[in-house]
Design a protein that fits this description.
alpha/beta; elongated; single chain; 9 helices
């Protein structure tokens, strides 16, 4: 097998994994037209169609699925063999793809940046989204989220940032409407709601004397960003339930103040999760070590 034939197979494996020519092009650092050309060349060489293509989707034919099932383990062995060369380097080389909740990204990027500064040959691709992501299906090496309850083929490692939810409002708002004394009083207030990409609303949770209370709130504004919640609260619209770190600058300049402090839940840990497998790339190991609590 010559270099061109091996390259075509590597492109095929990438398209098959992502079910997308554009994602494969991004992963390989090339253009979509170059990926299409490689696939056409491979199909002409082997004499069968490997993908069904429409304007909206890419799927494997039966022949393509059979080839991918045999090829992917071999490609994984090749990647593992190349990655083992990191044992002979002073710092890891390679690319790590991770997905992070959009609202959490600002608080974990300092660890990513520090890792990259210390390892010039390492590359990290970060996709920030609050949508639920199947990291295996989407081709990520790892993801970050709250909670360590995952499927059996996943491993979760607690990482450094912790997050505590607090309730805040503008001084002018409290002057006009007063401060809630208990979570039940939130029913009388305009609360800024957070919606997930699925449309589900985030409920506000509190804890006191070991008892957890979940409150379904209502309000005039619903957003999908904690920063938008903080800004809207600072403008005097209503109350926001946000991470303490997100509110820090607003609390410092006095545009927001706290309420219900004795009801705040304890800080939560975030987890880096990744697929349980025999070989773990040096780049992913370095990321885990950098972020592990």
């Amino acid at each position: 097998m010559n270099n061109a034939e091996f390259s075509e197979l590597a492109v095929f494996a990438s398209v098959a994994k992502h079910r997308s020519f554009s994602r494969a092009a991004t992963e390989r650092g090339t253009s979509g037209s170059a990926v299409s050309h490689s696939i056409r060349s491979l199909e002409q060489r082997v004499g069968v169609q490997l993908f069904n293509r429409t304007t909206r989707s890419v799927s494997l034919t039966d022949a393509g699925a059979a080839l991918y099932a045999r090829l992917e383990p071999a490609m994984a062995d090749v990647r593992a063999a190349l990655d083992e060369l990191n044992l002979y380097r002073t710092s890891p080389v390679g690319t790590v793809r991770i997905t992070i909740p959009n609202s959490m990204a600002p608080f974990v990027m300092e660890y990513v940046v520090d890792l990259l500064k210390r390892n010039s040959g390492l590359k990290i691709e970060v996709v920030a989204t609050d949508a639920l992501v199947d990291i295996v299906q989407e081709g990520y090496d790892a993801g970050i989220r709250f909670g360590e309850r995952l499927s059996p083929d996943m491993i979760a490692v607690r990482i450094k940032p912790t997050f505590r939810f607090i309730v805040v409002g503008a001084p002018d708002y409290f002057e006009q409407f007063g401060k809630p004394a208990t979570p039940d009083d939130l029913q009388k207030h305009n609360c800024i709601r957070y919606a997930f990409p699925s449309g589900a609303l985030f409920s506000w949770e509190f804890q006191r004397h070991g008892k957890t209370i979940s409150v379904d709130i209502d309000g005039a504004l619903t957003v999908d960003s904690q920063e938008a919640m903080a800004q809207s609260a600072a403008y005097g619209l209503g109350l926001a339930y946000i991470w303490e770190a997100r509110a820090a600058s607003y609390l410092k300049n006095g545009s927001l103040t706290r309420c219900l402090e004795e009801w705040y839940p304890p800080a939560e840990s975030a987890y880096l999760y990744f697929r349980r497998r025999e070989h773990q790339s040096a780049g992913l190991r370095a990321l885990i070590d950098a972020m592990k609590a």
